[in-house]
Design goal:
The N and C termini lie far apart (91 Å). The longest helix has 27 residues. Helix content is 43%, strand content 15%. The protein is globular. The protein is an alpha/beta fold. Strands 2-1-3-10-4 form a 5-stranded mixed sheet, with helices on both faces.
Amino acid sequence: MSYDGKSPLPNPTREDAATTSRRDFLKKSSALSAAAALMSLVDPAIRIGAWASGSDAPEKAEVKIGFIPLTDCASVAIAAEKGFDRKYGIKITPSKEASWAGVRDKLVNGELDAAHVLYGLIYGLQLGAGGPKKDMAVLMTINRNGQGITLNNQLKAKGVTDGTALAKLVKAEPKEWTFAQTFPTGTHAMWLYYWLATYGIDPFKEVKVITVPPPQMVANMRVDKMDGYCVGEPWNARAIHDRIGFTAATSQEVWQDHPEKVLGTTLDFVQKYPNTARAMVAALLDASKYIDTLANRSEVARIIAGKAYVNTEFDVIEGRMLGRYDNGIGRTWQDKHYMKFYDEGQVNYPWLSDGMWFLTQHKRWGLIKDHPDYLAVARAVNQVKLYREAAAMTKTPVPKSDLRTSKLIDGVVWDGSNPKAYADGFKVKA
């Protein structure tokens, strides 16, 4: 029947409507499949641009990422300074913070979107240790190695140059020996405790341990408020530069290729802004690749030495960033396990076993009372799926397993297989 253009249009039957609906659905499905097929042929760089402007676009255009003035804040700085953030549709604003406690508080209350932060701080918050209990997220590991244990030159005058000599002195001359770390559940506390305990020194009974923000370590040692400390660079090299201390051990001697800082945030942020979180990881992965290109390291050192970041002399940062070590008491060497930020993606993967290790040490030292479900906590905190998506975007290799094996300074092997027995197995513990 023809339509005369004047009479009312006839009402379609339910059958006609259903047929039309199915036809439209099939057309749309076919179009989407064709588009997906075409997109798979497009250059990855162009696909990233499409991602950044499409349905997977970052929910927040600007993100504030906190950092502490340390050499390993470099990936946050370089992502912003070199424009790696803009490639993924975000603008990173680095926010210089005074202490890890300040970083903790601003993450929890939302003043910071994310932070360059201590691995153990994030896990402590997850279980309510070292701050209010809050569901947290590790998006990626930022760096490996590159921290250190510095002793006061006054100990050198007493013949102490290493852990063995320190243990003899502590037992021979009982007094209030004072050591500093940067946050109770953080990495530096764990390296210090592990190192002391390896030589038979109980960090809670035979010495006094205090908390000092990283940039204040050197100043406090200068006025003899501590006998030693564990902190990140450049504050170990700076003590040598100022001739007030020496390096007794590097953190890579405690645990070769250990995890250090992470890109941390709250689980709320990840759930509310998943695309933004993924974009941050992708931007920092690209920055990490840039930093780990050795030819770029001096430039990176110069950038982060500036007032906006670490605010110290360039040469204090550059040497150890290049793996050139001087312990301040006559030994120099080229360290193969210097601070790394990428290493073909091995640095950045949020290994579940890494997160679990910090929980075992929190239990060892009485920072948490009971054994948690180690693997379940690590799976909840470490955002492996999101990380893998960002890794695919940046062509970053990922491992087959979420667990890895390491041997620490005392010869004990950690592989994540039996965390409860591992935590309970140490001779020196709380």
